[in-house]
Design goal:
This protein is mainly alpha-helical and 263 residues long. 76% of the residues lie in helices and 2% in strands. The chain has twelve helices and two strands. The protein has a two-stranded antiparallel ribbon with strand order 1-2. It is globular.
């Protein structure tokens, strides 16, 4: 019964997430369609909505539903998982210091993230947001990181060990579909889109009018490399400090030290 409830919550998350994204897309498209139809800037849309009752109804309905979504007690999967993963990683690194104070540490991290996000709601915040989104939150940086995460989990740690961990937590082993997507499909898609993004790379342009200056490009690549470089740098560091021949160091680097618990 416990596993059944967990699966229901999981299915609810995966239905709610794309539904939320689809609704937000409809809101944005309705505003842009209004702009194209009346051939006026978006900031003047309120004047024309007075002449179209359907837009007034849609605006109020959208506002109510967005308020419901943002104040819902169901956590957003992406935001919750990202923050919780970051906090858990740091707490596990210094458990004796941070684990008894996890709640306080979580509050501190959330406040820091809030302060870092404040500049993005200023008048020039959209330019900062676009820079962060283009070079760190999506595209090459995300695909590069996810590719190596997938390889590390499914190929180095091993999909059999991962399946044993999932069975230990849920009581069920993943079927062949999940194994195939984890081992082959996901890495191939991440690598293909990453290579395509590299080959088709173009400097960042905001709203098809504003071209970022050279120092903006340097700042963007600095943000991107701040996440990407740690993977090859740690591999180089591991090969440098690990004793033994090159073959022994390679084997040690791809041999997992964690094992699923045996009942």
């Amino acid at each position: 019964m416990k596993n059944f409830v967990n699966y229901k919550i999981l299915i609810l998350f995966y239905c709610e997430w794309p539904s939320n994204s689809t609704f937000q897309l409809l809101v944005v498209m309705s505003v842009m369609l209004n702009k194209i139809t009346v051939k006026k800037p978006v900031k003047e849309e309120s004047v024309h909505q007075k002449e179209r009752p359907v837009y007034v109804v849609w605006r109020h309905l959208a506002r109510k539903i967005l308020n419901l979504l943002t104040t819902s007690k169901i956590p957003r999967p992406l935001k919750f998982c990202t923050v919780e993963t970051f906090i858990t990683g740091i707490v596990d690194e210094w458990p004796s210091l941070l684990r008894p104070r996890r709640e306080v540490f979580t509050v501190v991290i959330v406040i820091i993230l809030y302060m870092l996000g404040l500049p993005m709601v200023t008048k020039g915040g959209m330019y900062i947001f676009q820079l962060m989104d283009y070079y760190s939150a999506s595209g090459m940086t995300l695909l590069f990181t996810v590719f190596f995460q997938t390889i590390a989990i499914t190929w180095v740690y091993g999909v059999k060990r991962l399946s044993s961990n999932i069975e230990e937590m849920t009581g069920y082993r993943p079927n062949w579909y999940f194994l195939a997507t984890w081992v082959f499909v996901s890495p191939a898609i991440c690598l293909g889109i990453f290579l395509f993004s590299v080959l088709r790379y173009k400097p960042l342009v905001y709203a098809e009018t504003y071209v970022y200056p050279w120092w903006g490009e340097v700042l963007g690549w600095g943000i991107a490399l701040a996440s990407m470089l740690w993977i090859p740098l740690y591999a180089f560091h591991f090969m440098l400090v690990t004793p033994g021949s090159l073959k022994d160091r390679l084997i040690a680097g791809i041999t997992p030290t964690l094992r699923p618990s045996k009942k």
